[in-house]
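ok so for the tutorial part 2 we go from a plain amino acid sequence to predicted structure tokens. step 1 is just haveing the sequence, like this:
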Amino acid sequence: MLEVVNLSKRFKKNKAVDSVNLFLEKGETVGLLGPNGAGKSTTISMISSLISPTEGDVRLHNDSILQETGKLRKVLGVVPQEIALYTDLTAKENLEFFGKIHRLSGRELQGKIKDILEQIGLTDRQTDVVKTFSGGMKRRLNIGVALLHDPEILIMDEPTVGIDPQSRNYILEEVKRLNKEKNMTILYTSHYMEEVEFLCDRIYIMDKGTIIASGTKDEIKSILSSESTILIKLDKSSPAFVEKLKELAVFKSVTSHEKTVTVVIPKEVHPFNQIFQIADETEAIIVTIDRQTPTLEDVFLHLTGRALRD
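step 2 — the prediction. this is what the tokens look like for a chain of 310 residues:
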């Protein structure tokens, strides 16, 4: 349905996106993962025709949209990372404004607004000014704006950042419903691995401007099928302990986030004596140590060397 071909973007000497290829099939929910600075938002901006690529193409039903962006914008809804609302207007006034941009008017527009307000749970707050809303309510209204014109494709760029758990759960369930009930095609980026696990049929992992892995959740996890993961929790962070672990060739990757150290090793290796010896040498105190099968996050750490939130 939508295809990205060798997409690149340079900002002066910096190549933010480098020859990205990805596709969306009708009715899929696809995850785009990557640490901060990986190039996700720049890629999304090019797909949504907000900025022009330096090289490459974006195709809708096999037709390039770079010269005729109107074709894509008629069927595309975008929920940006930053809140895109007029905070001095009410919820209903925002929906009216953006609805008119999509050339909706009269009874059709008012009917859409009524349905959207019910859908996002803001009917009782429709006449309140948006600047009085909580972060979660603004996020929900942002999604409502993107749905006004019944898009076939919805791009959501980290839509749950900085909101309360109740609003987050609502958004996740709503994304699931839009995909299942309306067969909407969704491209979803997130800083929360569990969201991608819950929502997405396929996943692209992006780092330093390029796609470094892609496939279904099981296919991505199979990258570490011959490995297992050691999860070490310390009483406090210990850079010396982490650096010593990295010196051991038997460890395929060693990553740390605050007090937690994650080590990927071959399944046949049993490194506990070495780990405790290094802890003793560096005066690191191990609170718990656990061996487990690799998760999606373990694969991400293995591929990028960075946590998703880094």
